[in-house]
Amino acid sequence: MSSELEGGGSQGGRPSQGRSGGMGPPRKKGQQGAELLRALGRVGPPAPRVLEAAREVLWSALAAEALSADAAGETLTGETRAGGTDRSRPDIRRHRTQRDEPGP
Amino acid sequence: METDGTLIERSARGRPDAFVEVVQRHEVAVHGFLARRAGYQVADDLLGEVWVRAFAARGGYNPAHDDARPWLYGIARNVLRAHWRVRRDAGHAAAGDAVDPWDDVVDQLDSAARAQALIPALRALPAAERDVLLLVAWEQLTPAEAAVVLGVPQGTARSRLHRARAALRPVLAGYPKAPDPAEEEK
């Protein structure tokens, strides 16, 4: 990525050379600033259990949607369900079954 | 590899589980977005809510956008703002902090970096300009993508970014050396 503080193109303009005579690359100071800014926002990766817990919340929403779609389908006619477009429900149920099993 | 747009579109058309792959692609990035602004604990707590909101809103996603990150960051930002609003209402923060809780963000930043003059310079920026700058610097977004996150026109995002850069440039020019991440992690 180019320096966030230089902007590329014509927007930010080129920084003036240093007082020492501009021995380094013209963009060096801006790049240092960009690195410092990036360093400010550095965070470590989350624990796997955190990601799993969040996905579990999503699976709950998926299951709820599948159940409500089932209920709506039964309420309407119970006949014409588009068989090729709703293969996800078995996947959801399988996932829920696996996740509901006690862990080691 | 299928694009995020394709997966989200499919998830909205009878294959909701396709959304899980989008989540798996971006979960670390979205957690980082939250953690940089509110800390690890809050990020851990809010990540699931981001997924649920995104899943509920997937029908409105434009599948022409291959990368869902800007959209997801926008949702994460809304979740954070709601979190801050609740905190404010509960008396944990001063009135007005819900929109710009920069002091919370500062609390999460690396302690060595906090000592630098950059923090006051960032604090002095208008919140709208700071938001764009940090989306570009921290989330590695383009100005156009930052505009999607913030729900503003691209030109607005670009001009805010330009002003933020101009304001920070004199401050950053005074740094002789950027911190070395490898050294800091020792």
Q: What can you see in these coordinates?
A:
- The complex is a heterodimer of chains A (104) and B (186).
- Chain A is mostly helical.
- Chain A is built from three helices and no strands.
- Mean pLDDT of chain B is 86; it is low at 178-186.
- The radius of gyration of chain B is 18 Å and the shape is globular.
- Chain B contains eleven helices and no strands.
- In chain B, helix 2 runs antiparallel to helix 3 (40-57).
- Helices cover 69% and strands 0% of the residues of chain B.
- By secondary structure, chain B is mostly helical.
- Classes of the chains: A mainly alpha (104), B mainly alpha (186).
- The interface between A and B is large, with 46 and 57 residues.
Q: How are the secondary structure elements laid out?
A:
The complex is a heterodimer of chains A (104) and B (186).
Chain A: H1 28-40, H2 48-76, H3 88-100
Chain B: H1 4-12, H2 18-38, H3 40-57, H4 69-89, H5 102-108, H6 111-114, H7 118-124, H8 127-137, H9 143-150, H10 154-172, H11 181-184
Helix pairs in contact in B: 1-2, 2-3, 2-4, 2-5, 3-4, 4-9, 8-9, 8-10, 9-10
Give a short synopsis of this structure.
The complex is a heterodimer of chains A (104) and B (186). Chain A contains 3 helices and no strands.
Shape of chain B: globular
Mean pLDDT of chain B: 86
Helix-strand topology string of chain A: HHH
Count every helix of chain A, treating DSSP H or I runs of 4 or more residues as helices: 3
SSE ordering of chain B: HHHHHHHHHHH
Give me the secondary-structure category of chain A.
mainly alpha
**Could you please say which CATH topology of the largest domain in chain B applies here?**
Rna Polymerase Sigma Factor, Chain: A
Report the top-level CATH class of the largest domain in chain B.
Mainly Alpha
Portion of residues within helices of chain A: 40-55%
Number of domains of chain B: 2
Number of strands of chain B: 0
Write down the overall geometry of chain A: elongated
Number of strands of chain A: 0
- The percent of residues in helical segments of chain B reads 55-70%
